[in-house]
Amino acid sequence: MAKGRYLVYELWHPDEQKPFYVGWTDTAKNRSRLADHLKDGRRPNSAGNPFKAHKIAKFLKEGRVPTFVEILRTESEEDALGLEMTLIDSWGRRDQGQGPLTNLTDGGDGFRGHHTEETKEIIRKHSLELWEDSNYRALVTQVQTLRWQNAPELKQKFQTRFSGEGNPFFGKTHTREANQSNADAHAGVEVSSATRDKLRDVHKGRKHSEKHNQNVGNALRDVPKSSLHIQHLREAALRRHAERRQDASAIR
Fold first, then answer.
1. pLDDT attached to residue 114
2. pLDDT value at 124 more than 90
3. Average pLDDT, stretch 214-240?
4. What span, in angstroms and rounded, lies between the C-alpha atoms of 17 and 10?
5. 231 has which bridge partners?
6. Helices 134-150, 77-91: inter-axial angle, 10-degree rounding
7. 95: nearest Cα among 87, 85, 105, 86
8. Are strands 19-26 and 67-74 parallel, antiparallel or unpaired?
9. Closest-CA residue to 91 (of 103, 79, 80, 82)
10. What is the DSSP code (8-state) at residue 12?
11. What number of CA atoms fall less than 13 Å from residue 57's CA on the CB side?
12. Distance, first Cα to last Cα, the chain
């Protein structure tokens, strides 16, 4: 077992592949965090988090106990707090309608309220440092993948929530400076043929509205096209022509 004073863990349903609680503990002060949770389940009405405690109480009544899953052991308390917050954000809290977790805070030692600008900057730098660790990135990716695989209703809820007027960028446009910055960042980047095929398959059959086509046309009418852009347009036109011929042959 990996060594480390601070432990980040999840409590999983006995028969489901997803957690219902994320936590952390200082093993130097508390060596049996699962025992504490089970104790809360035996007296749920007096527990600090009755939401979680009543779920555990239900398991105990059925003769079962939750699965205690160790996520990370580390000597850094900051790493433990940061990962706890990331996991809670990734899985989503049930009281906010965003996921299966019974956590009542966003993690980070139960912090409530608003961070100062100084604290926000510390958290930002710490998150960037964590993200440089390939193992940490793999863990977060795994958590996100499990989240969508085991909770398709959440995926649908997020798609509905952030579509149309629910999208934070709805009705807004990028500035010329932002567009130029984005163009400079992607200049010279070659997209593989496999990626092109995937993008084409995703967008095949989709049709833009007349207003959208008109807006795009107006925006690009006076923009000079590079030789690479012209080449891509020709390739796209040839692909569309080949697809139409193939569709026509299939109909015959």
1. 53
2. no
3. 77
4. 11
5. none
6. 30
7. 105
8. unpaired
9. 103
10. E
11. 14
12. 65
CB-neighbour burial class of residue 80 (10 A; exposed 0-12, middle 13-18, buried 19+): buried
Give residue for tokens 């096209």: 225
Ramachandran assignment for 66, one of left (phi > 0), alpha (psi -120 to 50 degrees), beta (any other): beta
Q: pLDDT (tens digit, 9 = 90+) per residue, 14-42?
A: 888 788 999 999 888 777 888 889 988 99
Instruction: Indicate the DSSP class of residue 44.
Output: G
Largest CA distance in the chain: 76
| Residue in the block written with tokens 């601070």 | 6
Instruction: Return the higher-pLDDT residue of 134 and 6.
Output: 6
Neighbour-count burial for 138-160, b at 16+ CB within 10 Å, e otherwise = ebbeebeeebeeebeebeeeeee
Q: Which two tokens stand for residue 11?
A: 């409590």
Token output for 36:
């504490």
SS3 of residue 205 by DSSP: coil
Q: What angle do CA 49, 156, 101 make, to 5 degrees?
A: 15
- For tokens 């593989």, the residue is 192
Helix (H, G, I), strand (E, B) or coil at 109: coil
CA distance 160 to 166: 8
Model-level pTM greater than 0.70? no
Q: Where are the alpha helices (DSSP H) in the chain?
A: 33-42, 50-61, 77-91, 117-131, 134-150, 152-161, 176-186, 193-203, 210-220, 227-251
